[in-house]
Amino acid sequence: MAHRNVDLAAVIAETGWSQTVLAAAMVRVAVESGAEEVITVKRSHIAMWVAGTRPRSQAAAILRETLSRRLGRPVTFAELGLAERSADTDASADWNTDTLTALVDLGRNNMDRERRRLLAGAAYSVGGLALPGDSWWDAAPQRARSRSLRATHSVGESEARAVREMTEFFARRDQRHGGIDGRTALCQYIVDDVARYVGGSFGSERTRQALYSAAAEAVYVAGWMSFDASQHELARRYFSLALKLAAEAEDTALAGHTLRAMAHQAIDLGHARTALELANASVERNRYTSAVSRERALIGIVRARALAVNGQRRKAIAAISQAEKDLARATSADDEPQRVWFFQEASLAHETARTLWALGDLDGALRHFRDSVRFRKTDSFSRTHAVTLGYMGTVQAGQGNLEAACQTWSLALDAMDGVQSGRTRDAALTMRAVLSPFRARGIPSLSEVDARASAVLQRVT
What radius of gyration do the chain's Cα atoms show? Predict the structure, then answer.
């Protein structure tokens, strides 16, 4: 006979939520995480768990994350009376796990079909975004040097170049085809080759730093592709690993670049306060000042959007202005890191539009979305082009111009051909949601876009 879970009942009471409200909050986290088996949770499930029934692993993870977000602190399975759960780790403790061990474990988990399924439905851990203190960053390079002293195989500059070449290939492929297609191949490369290089011995400190920076960029791209595939917790873990490798490489600009990506993801998932903390961290500890102008513009415009979603209008506008100045100073010189090759006028216009949109300036957002479409080289940036057009159509619909929105969305759907991306899938979902009230009217242009968006949703998994 099951015994009442008094620990779980106590934590729920601490939130001040009813069981009905908790169930609704769990559904929101489950939808965000793609945890389909938890989307149907109702008050009756909460009541059964309090009565002593054990929730399934996915449901337990979503329950813990939901309660953690409400209470503003990491909640453990032990606190919930679920201490036997093997996943009972504080995500923020990942910073103290050996980087090489974490790299191999995450990669292997991502290769295993069943573990990959569980990772795909894992809740995005806001607690896991809590950054370590200054002492951790200061000690990171020495931790890496100590690790390489135990290695027996030698790694040199040729391995670092090989990693960079492979990373560039996947980064460019992601821009054209999206993050769903090809991501597994990059993750396999990280497990088979990158992890082995990270665990090697190096002839000089400069060589070690070069390899660690290259490894960090490869892991970062795996994180970005996971983000684009809507595998949000997996993306967070890869971003955190990339950040650790960048810290161990003493590559402050790359650390800022990665923190910017983490802030971008947090904004898109609706975690405004956490996003601003990450965006502010991206410019601290010389991360902004050590970056080249193009990367400064990228870091700065995402921080502008973080400020905007937090209602800090004046600071957001100032940050947009600074990003424009930074990009104007940029040159395609040999000293620019490869990771910023994509950030050009079209990208800045896209992010500026999203910032103005968050501030409620629809006219300004539409103007910059149009600039982004005009500037972009669509053959090389098919995924981003489709996403931009999707956002642009949504703004037009928000202004009441549904006919113009359908024309824009039709172009977006054209651009989605051959793209496998969670973000283009989200754009198609938005189209259908906006058009839903008008379906019965039989308007040809609306019906055509609705049908095409439905077809995209069936194709993009």
Answer: 23
